[in-house]
Amino acid sequence: MMSEKKHALVTGGSRGIGRTIIETLLAEGFEVWYLSRSKAEGLEANHISCDMANRGSVEAALETVVSEAKYIDVLVNNAGITRDGLIMRMKDEAWDDVIAVNLTSVFLTCRRIGRLMATQRRGAIVNISSVVGIVGNGGQTNYAASKAGIIGFSKSLAKELAGRNVRVNVVAPGFIGTAMTEVLSEKLKDQIKSQIPLSRIGNTEEVAQSVAFLASDKASYITGQVLAVDGGMAM
Ligand code: NDP
């Protein structure tokens, strides 16, 4: 009997790290569904339009994915935003938006897809945190809270789902060249580089390879871990 094609769901795969994660999984033979507001050009994956900031939108999108895919082997929570600012001046919306997109969406996807994986008795979840969730960063209290939240959430979920043969791990990227980091000035980028032991900005492939590893059977005895892909920033 031919083995079934593996199914993956990725949030926020329209560009940046998420897009490279999808390309990597496609190259490994996965069929991929991804949730984002915009559709990526030239990606052989199933796009479901979804605003991760909106609970109803996420829940509806997840039902669509489950009815189309029937089973999910790999879930990658990648969608994320920044709304930086010092806390004295941080508006409520900057806090609420970041927590909704970066953390609440992870709860919603893991609750629905975790339930599916538990009944399947197999699955791997990889949640994207950040070096900022480990060491903190002035001007990013909202972002750091969401990314540190992902770590505690994922370790707890790993404990809940281990008995069902579902693994949950975290990848914590450092400074990766994408639209999120493009906006920073050259001066700031040079400053950041001076704090990276490997002295360079990382690329999306380096993150995607780690995600693909943790999602694969090569990592079959790894759960509840945080893998920093950060050129040594957080050690
Ligand atoms: P990008 O800004 O390049 O891409 C973000 C992705 O998230 C897009 O696909 C976007 O899709 C999606 N997204 C954002 N908001 C929403 C929303 N409301 N609803 C649905 N999808 C949304 O970011 P990166 O690729 O750089 O970052 C990806 C992840 O990696 C994030 O979680 C980020 O925090 C994390 N990270 C990034 C680092 C870096 O240096 N770049 C470092 C550490 C962590 P669309 O706009 O189409 O909706």
UniProtKB/TrEMBL annotation:
<feature type="active site" description="Proton acceptor">
    <location>
        <position position="143"/>
    </location>
</feature>
<feature type="binding site">
    <location>
        <position position="78"/>
    </location>
    <ligand>
        <name>NADP(+)</name>
    </ligand>
</feature>
<dbReference type="InterPro" id="IPR050259">
    <property type="entry name" value="SDR"/>
</dbReference>
<dbReference type="InterPro" id="IPR057326">
    <property type="entry name" value="KR_dom"/>
</dbReference>
<dbReference type="InterPro" id="IPR020904">
    <property type="entry name" value="Sc_DH/Rdtase_CS"/>
</dbReference>
<keyword id="KW-0521">NADP</keyword>
<dbReference type="Pfam" id="PF13561">
    <property type="entry name" value="adh_short_C2"/>
</dbReference>
<dbReference type="InterPro" id="IPR002347">
    <property type="entry name" value="SDR_fam"/>
</dbReference>
<comment type="pathway">
    <text>Lipid metabolism; fatty acid biosynthesis.</text>
</comment>
<dbReference type="GO" id="GO:0006633">
    <property type="term" value="P:fatty acid biosynthetic process"/>
</dbReference>
<comment type="function">
    <text>Catalyzes the NADPH-dependent reduction of beta-ketoacyl-ACP substrates to beta-hydroxyacyl-ACP products, the first reductive step in the elongation cycle of fatty acid biosynthesis.</text>
</comment>
<feature type="binding site">
    <location>
        <begin position="12"/>
        <end position="15"/>
    </location>
    <ligand>
        <name>NADP(+)</name>
    </ligand>
</feature>
<comment type="similarity">
    <text>Belongs to the short-chain dehydrogenases/reductases (SDR) family.</text>
</comment>
<keyword id="KW-0444">Lipid biosynthesis</keyword>
<dbReference type="InterPro" id="IPR036291">
    <property type="entry name" value="NAD(P)-bd_dom_sf"/>
</dbReference>
<comment type="subunit">
    <text>Homotetramer.</text>
</comment>
<keyword id="KW-0560">Oxidoreductase</keyword>
<feature type="domain" description="Ketoreductase">
    <location>
        <begin position="6"/>
        <end position="178"/>
    </location>
</feature>
<feature type="binding site">
    <location>
        <begin position="143"/>
        <end position="147"/>
    </location>
    <ligand>
        <name>NADP(+)</name>
    </ligand>
</feature>
<protein>
    <recommendedName>
        <fullName>3-oxoacyl-[acyl-carrier-protein] reductase</fullName>
        <ecNumber>1.1.1.100</ecNumber>
    </recommendedName>
</protein>
<keyword id="KW-0443">Lipid metabolism</keyword>
<dbReference type="GO" id="GO:0051287">
    <property type="term" value="F:NAD binding"/>
</dbReference>
<dbReference type="InterPro" id="IPR011284">
    <property type="entry name" value="3oxo_ACP_reduc"/>
</dbReference>
<keyword id="KW-0275">Fatty acid biosynthesis</keyword>
<feature type="binding site">
    <location>
        <position position="176"/>
    </location>
    <ligand>
        <name>NADP(+)</name>
    </ligand>
</feature>
<dbReference type="GO" id="GO:0004316">
    <property type="term" value="F:3-oxoacyl-[acyl-carrier-protein] reductase (NADPH) activity"/>
</dbReference>
<keyword id="KW-0276">Fatty acid metabolism</keyword>
